[in-house]
Amino acid sequence: MNKQFRSRTARGIAVASALALTLTACGRGDEGGGGGSRGGSASPGITDDSVTLGITTPLSGATAGPGTCTVAGVKAYFGAKNAEGGVEFGDGKTRTVEIEALDDAYDPQQAKANYDQLKDDVFAMTAGLGTPTNRAWREAAIADEVPQVLVMTGDPLFSDPEESPWQLGFVPIYQNEGEAMGELLASSTGEHKVAILSQNDDFGEGYVEGFKSAIEGSDNIEIVNELTYEATDTSVDAQITELASSGADVFFNAMSVTPLMISALQKAQQVNWTPSWFLPSNTSSPGAILEPGGAAAYPGIYSVAFSKTPAAPAFADNEDVQTYLAALKEHGDYPDPPAFPHCQWSWMVGATLEQAFAEMTEPTRENFMEALRSIEGFEAPLMLPDTSVSTGEDGQPAVSTVVVQKYNGKGYDTVETFE
Amino acid sequence: MAAELTLQDVSLQFGGIKVLQEVSFTVEPGQIFGLVGPNGAGKTSLFNCISGHYKPTAGSVRIDGTEVQGSRPATLAGHGLARTFQHPALQLGETVLENVLLGAHTRLPGGALEWAVRSPRTRRAEKELRAEALDLLERNGLGWAAHVPADELSHGLHKGVELCRALLMKPRLLLLDEPAAGLPHEEVEQLIATVRRLRSEDDITVVIVEHHMGLIAALTDRVVVLDHGAKLMEGTAAEAQSDPRVIEAYIGKDAA
Amino acid sequence: MASASSVSSAPASSAPSAPPFRQRPWVRWALPLLLLVVLVVAPLVLSEGVNETLARIGVFAVAVLGLNVVMGYTGQVSLGQIFFLGVGAYVTAYGVQNDWNIVGVFALACLIPAVAGLLVALAAARLGGLAIAMVTIALPIVGVPLAKRLSEFTGGSQGLSARFAETPEWTGLYDDQWQLYVVLVIGGLVFVLTRALVRGKYGRAFAIVRGNENVASSMGISPYRYKVLAFTIASLIGGVSGFLYMLVIQYTSPETMSFGHSIELLAAMVIGGAGSIVGSLLGGAYYVLIPELTNQVDPNLTSLLQGAILLVVLFLLPGGLASLPRALTRGRRRTRVGRGPAATPSTPSSTTGSATAEPAPTERQGHA
C-alpha cells in the first residue's frame, strides 16, 4: 500500500505543481480586482457600440422551466432591437445589447460562481430567478458595485435601497399580491368572514402581512380562523376541515406548492365548503391547478397578475403579444408557446432596461443605477391596464402594482369589485 | 505463553438443524491439536464458535480459564487468539507487507488523532512492526514479495501471507482452517515444517482443521474426530486412523 | 514469542531491494517543498477569477475528502455528506452573525457536525450495507425542511449571509488572495492529517472493514466501531468544508444541502478516485469546474453534458481520474515482477524451513 500510495502521491504532487506553474505563467492582470470605477471612465462590459448583460438563473433541474423563460424574454427583446441596429442610449450612442446567461441549477453556490465569472465582463446582472440564488451574491455585488437589477424574486430585501444599493427586484413582492387581494375585498359592500391558511415561511407570512394591512380598519371583514402548514407537508386535509367549520365565505390560501393546492381545492368540496378563494399568482394556473382541482364548483377564484397571458383569447390579436411571440421564437431560442409567465416578465425587463439606457448620460454603472431608479409609471409592453413599472419607490420592486383577476372557467378576467 | 483452550458441551443450532452437539475437549498449552472429520461434520462451525464468528447455542468456551463464549471476534483477538481462513482473504490491491501489517493492529498504540498527527510514538511503533513484519516474511520465504501487490501472488503464497499476518498478532492460540487445502504436495511439506517451527520457537498453541490426514498425522499431538456434529473420539492421530468408528465415518468419503 | 523479540533487533535493512527512487529522502522532501512554494506564490500572481475558482475547488475537495474517508476507504455508502457541509455552514453563519470569536466558530463548525455524525452512525452502523445508505439518504432530505423550519437559526428559506475573515490590513492582500490562503491553510491541514490517518494503523483497519469484515474482526478490529469512527471523521471534515463554504461563498440557504448536491459529491468522489487523496482533490476540481465548463459549451444543456462526461470518464477509467497514472504503473510493474525472480534467484531457495517459499519463481511467473 505504502509504496503504491507514495508513487501516486508523488505523481499527484508533480501534476499539481505543473498545473499551478502553468497558471502562474498566466500572471495577474490589471483588470482584476473587482471594484467599480468611479468617475467618467467606462465601466466593464460597455463600449461605444455594445453593452453586455449577465444572467445567472436555473436552466437545469426542477426550476429550469421558469428559469429558461427569464433568459428567453430578455434575449428576445434585445435580439429584436439588435436586428434593428441597436438601442439608443442617453449619451447619444447606439449600442447592441448582448446577453451572457449561465445555468446555476438553483444552487446558491453555483450562482455565486457564475457571478464571479461574469462580473468583470458584464455591465450589469439582471433577470435571474430565485431568492437564494440571488441572495448568494447580493453582498458581493454590493462590494464590487455591480448592478443586480430587475431580478425575479419576491424577496423585499432586493427592493430596499438602504440595504441593497446596487439591487432592484422586478416582480411584485409577496406583500404586494396579498395587499391587492385585501383591497379588493375591503372595497366590497357585503359582510365577509375570512379563513386564512398560509405556508409557514417568508412566502406565506408576506402574503398574510399584505392582506391584513389592506383590510385593517374595514369593519365588514372579519378573520374567523387562521392556520399554517409546512412547505414539506404532504396533506393539508386537517387544516381544510377545521377552516371549513369556521363558516367562512372567503378563503385566503397563501400556498406555493402545486399538488397541495390541487388537493386543497378538492378537499374543501368534499367537506361541502364552497367559499370564494384568493390564490397567489404562482399557484393559480388554470390548466395545471384549477381544472384538476375542480375549481368550477366555487363561486369565485381570485388571483393577481400584471402581465397579459398570450394564450388568452382576449389577447390573441393584441399587437404587443404578436410582436412578443414572434421575437421569442426568432431571437429567444424559445420556439414553443411560453409555458411560464416569467417569459413575459423577462420581456418587460428588456423594455425597462431600454428605458434606463435611454436616460444614461455616462457609460458607468453608477449612472445606470441612477437612470434605472428614475423610471416612473412606465407601461411596459404586455402589461395589463392599471399596472406599471415604477422604480423610485422605497421598499418596492419595479412592479408593485397588480390587478386582481377572476377565473372564468378557462382563464382570468380583470375585476374591479368583489362579487 | 501458549494458551489453554477448553470446550465444554458446545452446541450450535441453526433453526432446527443441530450443527454441533455437546462437544467437549481441552487443548493443552503448546499442543498442536487436530480437528478432523468427514465433510459436513461441523469442523469449521466449531472453529467459528471458538473464534467468535458464531455464537454457540449452549456450552462454554474458555481460554486460559476465562469464559469467552459469546464474545465478539474483535474482543477475542485481545485474548491472544488468531486465525486463518479456509479461503485466504487478503487485500488484493495492497502489497504483501501491508497485508501482513494488518496483524499488528492491536499491538499499535494510539488513537485516530494521534495517528493523524503521526506522534513520535506511533511513528516508532509503525517502524518497529514494519521491521518485524519484514523479518517474519523473510523467515517464511516471502521476503522477496514484501512490496509486491498481493493479487500478483499464487493461492499457495496467499496462505503463507495470511499465516504471517496471523503471526504478527503474536497470538497465544492460533487456529488454522484447512491450511493445506489447495496446496501442491511440496508446499504441504513446507507447511509442516513451518508449523513445527512455530511450536518450537514461538510458544503457541495451534488448532488445525484439516482433511489432509498426512498433515494431521505428521503434525498433531492429539486429535478430535467429529461426525455429524458430535465428538466421535479423541486421541492421537495414529489411534484415530486405526479406530473402526473413524474408518466407518470416512468410508467412501476420504482415504483415511 | 521468541520470534518477535529476536526480530526487533533486525532492522528493515534486511529487505531484499534498495528503496525505490521516490522513497529516497531528498525526493520525499523536495516534491512537497516544491508544492509548498508553488502554493505560497500562486495566489499572488493568479488572476482574481482563478483564485476564486481555486478557493471553491478547495471547499469541495475537503467535502469529497470527508466522503472518501467513510466511503472510499471504509466502504460505507454515504449519501448524506452534503448535510454535514450544510450544518457546518449554518453553524459558521450563525456564529458570525452573533459575533462569536472566529476560532470558536471554527471549532463548533467541526464539532457540531461531528457529534451529529456520531449519533447517526451509532444507529446506522448497526444496520448492514444498504441500510446505512438509506439512513444517510434521509439526512439531506430531512435537512432542507429542517433548515427552513428552524428559521430563528437558519434564516428560513431566505438563508443566511455572513462575510467574515476580512483581509487584515497588514497583509496588503486582495480579498480573493486572502481567502485562498485561508482555504489553503485549513484545507491543506485537513488533507495532510487525513492522508496520515488513512495510512498506517487506521488506514489498514478502514480498508479491511471495507474488504472483509470477518477478517477485520479476527484481527481485533471491530467493524462497528471503525464504521462509526469513519463516519464521524467524515462528518467532521464535512463541517470543515462547511466553514470554508461560508468563507468563500459567504451565503447559505436550505438549497445548499439539497439531496442533488449529495449525489454530485458522490459522483465527484467516484470521478476523482474512490479511496485516494489526490482523487479527492480531483473530485473537488470536477465538482467546481465541470459546471463552469458545461456552461461555456451551452448553458441550456449543462445537466445533459455533465451526465455524458460522467459516463465517459467512468467507462474509460472505472477507478476515477486518480487511477490514470496508477493504471499505467501497474502495467509496467506486472512486467517487472515477471522478470523479478531472475534478478533475485537466491532469495527463495536460500531460505530454509519456510512455509510456502517453494518454487516461487514458477508460481509468480504463472500469475504474472
Describe the structure.
The complex is a heterotrimer of chains A (about 425), B (about 260) and C (about 375). In chain A, about 40% of the residues lie in helices and about 15% in strands. Chain A is an alpha/beta fold. In chain A, strand 9, helix 9 and strand 10 form a beta-alpha-beta unit. In chain A, helix 2 packs across helix 11, helix 6 runs parallel beside helix 7 and helix 12 packs across helix 13. The N terminus of chain A is likely disordered. By secondary structure, chain B is α/β, with parallel strands linked by helices. In chain B, strand 4 and strand 5 form a beta hairpin. In chain C, helix 3 packs across helix 13. The longest helix of chain C is centred in the middle third of the chain and has 27 residues. Chains in contact: A-B, A-C, B-C. The interface between B and C is large, with 76 and 61 residues.
Write the layout of secondary structure elements.
The complex is a heterotrimer of chains A (419), B (256) and C (368).
Chain A: H1 2-26, E1 50-57, H2 64-83, E2 87-88, E3 94-103, H3 108-118, E4 124-126, H4 131-135, H5 138-144, E5 148-151, E6 167-169, H6 174-186, E7 192-199, H7 202-215, E8 221-229, H8 237-244, E9 250-254, H9 258-270, E10 276-278, H10 286-293, E11 301-305, H11 319-331, H12 342-359, H13 365-372, E12 403-407, E13 412-414
Parallel strand pairs in A: 1-3, 1-4, 4-5, 5-6, 7-8, 7-9, 9-10, 10-11
Antiparallel strand pairs in A: 2-3, 11-12, 12-13
Helix pairs in contact in A: 2-11, 2-12, 6-7, 8-9, 9-10, 12-13
Chain B: E1 5-14, E2 17-27, E3 32-36, H1 43-51, E4 58-63, E5 66-67, H2 73-76, E6 81-83, H3 96-101, H4 112-116, H5 120-139, H6 155-168, E7 173-177, H7 185-202, E8 205-209, H8 213-219, E9 222-227, E10 230-235, H9 237-242, H10 244-250
Parallel strand pairs in B: 3-8, 3-9, 6-7, 7-8
Antiparallel strand pairs in B: 1-2, 1-4, 4-5, 9-10
Helix pairs in contact in B: 5-6
Chain C: H1 2-8, H2 25-45, H3 48-73, H4 81-97, H5 102-124, H6 129-149, H7 151-154, E1 160-161, H8 175-197, H9 200-211, H10 213-218, H11 223-249, E2 251-252, H12 259-272, H13 277-297, H14 302-316, H15 323-343, H16 346-350, H17 360-367
Antiparallel strand pairs in C: 1-2
